[in-house]
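Lecture notes, continued. The same structure-token format from the folding unit now serves as the input rather than the output. Read the line below as a description of shape only.
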């Protein structure tokens, strides 16, 4: 268990800050001042000032929270360190497993980090005391010089007494500061001594781990079929276990004594977590009952007390990062009870029967951790675990095979069956290695299997909890007020959980690689491959640079897509913008983000940006001469986006093409004609050629329909009929009203014209046809 990080408390930080500010503000230039005597006429005014300064220094030194706290903590730290180091030495001598040595090494490293923190604070405190000591030494010399100038018999006795009193007070304060300096030096020496002891045992552990890895494929113990193992094991193991448990109890007592304040906080946190879980379950359940996607996770809400207790126990690993082995085993065993209750709620009978052995194996692993100093008992216990695991895996494989035959959707049972077959082969290998005498290899494989299975169960419960929490966040304010969440809540939930699932799987793989001692060699191998130089002329690249370049460009596309999605769903709908402006903003942001991402990717690639600028300049000259049309269309596309003479959704006519604008790209614009075809036009034509935009100002279109009747017809009656027919069509605007007029009187006909206004631009041919048929029917 690491030492208490008291240095982060506000009181100590305030004390340190006050000390630094006071030492700087009281005599900011005392070290640079010349040591000159004080004029005798100013002694009466300077003496009270010195008294105030000394009072501040005495208060600062006597109320030294830093030294006092470190002194108390260090005494308890040393009391806990002695049994810890003794236990570590025995674990190394007993040829413990790689996993146990790794855990021990991590705990001791945390102890050294705590000592480093203390050393840093003591160094700062020593610097402050040195400043005070120099300040007091300077004041003492100044007042001594002043006393020498007051030796004239004509000087009043009161003045001489004031000077002497000031000198005595300064010497007294300096003695106190000097005593504090000795205390700091003593604490630094004690910390350095403890640090050397920790470094020594860490070096020993590192050497032991190296030897175990080198001899991983060699026999390190006699075979179980050899009588030597049983004769020597029984003679030593009982005594070793008794001494080890006694040391672990002493270690746990020292740990509890030093962490009693945190233990009280842990109890309060546990009560608060349980109360919060019970209080929130009812609200969450009523909120999520109708969500079909959460039916697999909702049963976890039926055990709020177990969930709160489990979360509190898991938090204890963060609150007490360097726990004694006995303490870790006790808390680990306590966590099995609420975890079993939660799994019973979540899993069906088949999978529940598979999870019970995982919890049982974890309990046996904790027991092996307590008995780690006894290779005899640990080996027998591990062999028993592996034997039970092989039997259970064979039974589970048979059950899953039956389940796969009975279920319609047999993908999940078959997937589990594949995993179980892999575990069976690995477990059999570990079982054979333990029997044959390669205990280190067998223990390494077994620890990976058992601890990895338990870690997977914890990740499964965490995944179910995150499912509920994420859906609650999407259903509750403020997220449920967003239009994006309202329309795409389930899509956001599913994609987010896919990301969470991928992260948890990666975490599980990382954990297994760590347990099997494969993480460091694989990481070093991957680093070597990714950093291997690839020379292309004067440019030197690595595979890591190339992958980083591709990832950066891909990330720029994702960021651009996400920002445009948020703008379209949640921003533009709440802001009144001119038609076409949202599209222009989104397109501009898209190209700006892609350009920024590309430039950043070039920088990540390791390319010299100076050379890149020259290359871009040369490329621009090439564009100007050889790619004039492409450059013209590119610039024209930018003009269209900002000036917006045409917009997405406008109905335009260019030459013999009439259609609706669907997309304005950086090089060309896409039109959809009334016949359904799509026409792609270069952007330059919209800048240089004549374009008719039927919807630029508004979406109203005047439709003119010529009508010819016999010369004998009543003109007034014809005009009334035409207006009635137009007014009867709901697609015709009432304002302005339809107009009908006589335009020409011929020898054989009387010509009229009907003018109507409509906003249904896309239905103009259909409206013309419907009006023509209605007019013909009405005039008949």
């Amino acid at each position: 268990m690491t030492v208490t990080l008291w240095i982060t408390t506000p009181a100590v930080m305030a004390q340190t800050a006050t000390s630094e500010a006071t030492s700087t503000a009281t005599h900011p230039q005392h070290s640079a001042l010349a040591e000159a005597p004080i004029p005798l006429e100013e002694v009466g005014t300077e003496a009270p000032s010195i008294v105030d300064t000394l009072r501040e220094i005495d208060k600062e030194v006597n109320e030294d929270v830093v030294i006092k706290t470190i002194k108390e903590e260090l005494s308890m730290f040393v009391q806990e360190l002695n049994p810890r180091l003794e236990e570590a030495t025995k674990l190394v001598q007993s040829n413990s497993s790689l996993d146990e040595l790794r855990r021990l090494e991590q705990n001791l490293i945390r102890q050294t980090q705590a000592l480093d923190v203390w050393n840093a604070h003591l160094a700062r405190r020593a610097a402050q005391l040195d400043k005070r000591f120099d300040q007091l030494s300077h004041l003492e010399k100044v007042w001594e010089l002043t006393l020498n100038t007051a030796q004239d018999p004509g000087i009043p006795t009161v003045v001489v007494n004031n000077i002497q009193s000031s000198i005595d007070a300064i010497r007294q304060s300096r003695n106190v500061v000097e005593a504090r300096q000795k205390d700091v030096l003593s604490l630094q020496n004690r910390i350095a001594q403890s640090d050397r002891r920790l470094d020594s045992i860490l070096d020993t552990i590192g050497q032991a781990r190296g030897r175990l890895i080198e001899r991983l494929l060699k026999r390190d113990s006699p075979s179980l079929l050899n009588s030597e193992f049983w004769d020597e094991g029984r003679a030593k193991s009982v005594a070793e276990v008794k001494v080890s448990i006694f040391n672990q109890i002493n270690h746990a007592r020292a740990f509890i004594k030093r962490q009693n304040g945190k233990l009280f906080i842990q109890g309060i946190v546990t009560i608060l977590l349980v109360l919060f879980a019970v209080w929130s379950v009812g609200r969450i359940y009523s909120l999520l009952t109708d969500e079909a996607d959460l039916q697999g996770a909702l049963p976890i809400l039926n055990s709020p007390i177990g969930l709160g207790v489990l979360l509190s126990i898991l938090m204890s690993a963060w609150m007490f990062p360097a726990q004694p082995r006995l303490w870790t085993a006790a808390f680990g065993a306590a966590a099995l009870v609420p975890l079993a209750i939660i799994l019973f709620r979540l899993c069906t009978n088949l999978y529940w029967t598979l999870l019970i052995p995982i919890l049982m194996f974890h309990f046996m692993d904790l027991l092996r951790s307590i008995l780690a100093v006894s290779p005899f008992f640990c080996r027998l216990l591990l062999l028993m675990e592996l034997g039970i695991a092989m039997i259970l895996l064979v039974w589970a494989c048979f059950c899953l095979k039956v389940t796969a035959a009975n279920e319609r959707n047999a993908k999940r049972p078959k997937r589990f069956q594949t995993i179980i077959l892999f575990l069976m082969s690995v477990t059999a290998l570990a079982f054979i290695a333990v029997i044959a005498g390669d205990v280190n290899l067998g223990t390494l494989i077994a620890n990976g299997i058992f601890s990895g299975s338990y870690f997977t169960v914890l990740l499964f419960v965490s995944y179910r909890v995150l499912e509920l929490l994420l859906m609650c966040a999407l259903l509750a304010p403020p997220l449920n007020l967003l239009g994006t969440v309202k329309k795409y809540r389930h899509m956001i939930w599913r994609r987010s959980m896919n990301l969470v699932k991928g992260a948890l799987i990666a975490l599980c793989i990382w954990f297994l690689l760590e347990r099997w001692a494969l993480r460091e060699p694989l990481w070093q191998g991957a680093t070597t491959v990714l950093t291997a130089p690839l020379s292309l002329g004067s440019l030197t690249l690595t595979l890591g640079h190339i992958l980083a370049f591709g990832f950066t460009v891909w990330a720029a596309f994702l960021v651009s897509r996400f920002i445009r999605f948020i703008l379209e769903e949640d921003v533009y709908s709440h802001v009144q913008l001119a038609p076409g402006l949202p599209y222009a903003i989104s397109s501009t942001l898209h190209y700006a983000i892609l350009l920024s991402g590309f430039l950043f990717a070039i920088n990540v690639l390791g390319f010299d940006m100076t050379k890149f600028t020259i290359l871009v300049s040369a490329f621009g000259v090439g564009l100007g001469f050889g790619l004039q049309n492409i450059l013209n269309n590119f610039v024209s596309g930018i003009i269209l986006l900002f000036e917006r003479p045409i917009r997405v959704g406008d109905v335009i006519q260019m030459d013999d093409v009439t259609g609706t604008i669907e997309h304005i790209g950086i090089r060309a614009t896409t039109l959809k004609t009334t016949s359904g075809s799509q026409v792609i036009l270069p952007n330059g034509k919209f800048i240089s050629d004549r374009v008719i935009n039927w919807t630029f100002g508004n979406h109203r279109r005047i439709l003119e329909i010529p009508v010819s009747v016999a010369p004998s017809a009543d003109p007034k009656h014809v005009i009334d009929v035409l207006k009635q027919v137009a007014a009867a069509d709901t697609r015709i605007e009432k304002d302005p009203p339809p107009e009908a007029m006589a335009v020409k009187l011929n020898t054989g006909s009387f010509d009229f014209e009907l003018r109507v206004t409509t906003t249904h631009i896309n239905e103009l041919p259909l409206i013309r046809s419907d009006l023509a048929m209605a007019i013909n029917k009405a005039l008949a």
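Point for the exam: Confidence is low (pLDDT under 50) at residues 1-33.
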